[in-house]
Amino acid sequence: MSGYRTVEVDTGRTSMTDITDRVRDIVSDSGVGDGICVVFSMHTTAGITINENADPDVQTDMLHGLDMAFPDRPEFRHMEGNSHAHLRTSCVGPSVTVIVSDGELVLGTWQGIYLCEFDGPRRRRVAVKVVEG
Ligand code: ZN
Known about the structure:
five-stranded antiparallel sheet
């Protein structure tokens, strides 16, 4: 398989969107049995993380915690006015790598892959690459 696929996500102002099923579909389409899957946010104010998919309060609390840890500050100089979103994005990170085994993502029972929006609402693009090996 050459190139990569993209997942498009319409986000909220700040939000966490579970994209696990859409990544699973790409892994399935790739035909790769064993390898790795890279999920990468092509943005500077939206990141990718893996966290709990059972209790939606976890996502609410994570967004609230990141808001408390990285608040918007009047001393920030960036003219776009969204330095807090840049900070949160680098804290979360731009990508995750998940093992693919027997054609399936190797995720724990309560793990989901999330696009984390810190400066929405916007349409975001996530690049997904599945590599055999
Ligand atoms: Zn900016």
